[in-house]
Each structure stands twice: as structure tokens, then as C-alpha cells.
Amino acid sequence: MRVHIINPNANQEITEKIRSAAQSVAHDGTRIIARNVAHGPETIECAVDEVLASAGVLDLILQGEQDHVDAHVIACFGDPALDAARELSSVPVIGIAGAAFQIASLVCHRFAVVTTRKRTVHFAKNLLVRYGYEHQCSGIYASDLAVADCESNPEASFLQIRKDALKALSEGAEAIVLGCAGMADWEDRLTRELQVPVIDGVKAAVTLAESLGQLKIGVAKTGQYGLPFPKRFIGRYEHFSA
User: Fold this and answer.
1) Model pLDDT for residues 121-132, shown as the tens digit of each residue
2) Which residues contact 144 (CB under 8 A, 6 or more apart)?
């Protein structure tokens, strides 16, 4: 099986971290193909970042389709361009936020999301509502770390995330969902230190992609996720023309 993991930001270091996390849980027969967008923000922390990153995500969806991958994973906790990616794709497209919520719902009654910028809290709230898990989320805890801090000052950033997770647990959470793909390599350490389930969306999404492959379940193409209507695109998006 070939799982195509798309990092919607243009940060190669984060892409390598995502690749490593994905490979750590992938089956022996699964090939992980990890790529980041060629044009866009180095990190995604607001609506402008997400919109500008989305076109790059769709470029990589088309590339993965040409490579005949078996599933795509969008490795940003905002699940940017997810619906559009599913329209373009012939195979399942999984967002890491949706995957993390689904896995968390199987192992606890109430989970908390621990994330970075406070400005992204509303994105997480909207995703919880979209996926139907708001009733299981005990809270969203934002440290106001920059995503880049997780790379430039990882130990201090880890300790801040751990502090927020401990607060969430003291206020009723039974499991922790990590709200940033840049935290993918912290899951194991946090699980050991907190002694509760800690869910990283990258690993969760790879596992779900493999399960869909084993079940031979593809993406529905007869309704909302049907192919885009054929039309001409102008300028930099001309390659989307059909």
C-alpha cells in the first residue's frame, strides 16, 4: 500500500518529522510518501495561511493521483482543503484532526485538544462540530506557542504542552489529542509521562488509511465528492482545467 502524506506547509523539517511518525506505525508492506507544498507558508497558524496553503495541497493531490497512491493524508490539524481534495481524489483522503478525534472517541469518554496558537482554537472548535465530536471534547488548551517553536526550541515547547495537558487532565479530560502535526514525535513521551492515551493525528490517519485499504473501501464519487465540474482555469491554476 502507498500512503501519500501531504504537509500543507513548506517546512521540510516538519515534513521529515511527519514522515518518521508515519513510518513508525505503518505496516511492513506500506510505503510512506511524504511531501510538502512547494509554495506557501512555512507554518499554518491563521486563516490566510490555510487558504494560501490549500492550493498547494491540491497540487500534491494531483501528483499523488498520477503516482497511483492508495490514500492521501493531509497532515495539518486544520484539515485544510479536505473537501476539495476529496473531489479531486479517486482514493480516500484523511485529515489528521478528523482521524485523531475518531481514534480518541474509541478509547475515552472525554478528551482534550492541546494545541499551539490561541488564534487556532476556533478552527479546532469548528472541526469538532463538523466531525460530530464536540460533545466528547472537554476543552481546547492553547499554549500560544508558535509552530516554529516546536522546531527551534523543542524541549521548552514540549514542557509547555505537557503543562497544558496536565491542566486538561485535572479538569476532566481522560485522553489528549495533539493539535499540531509538528508535535508528532511527542506522542510516545507524553503517553509514558502522563499515563493516559495521547493521540497524534498523523499516526491515527496512517492507521485509518491502512484499514480502509484492507477493507477495500474507496471514496464515494457519486455525490458531494464527485469530480469537479469541467471548466477552464486561468493563470497559475491552468493545470486544474478539464
Assistant:
1) 999 999 999 999
2) 116, 117, 118
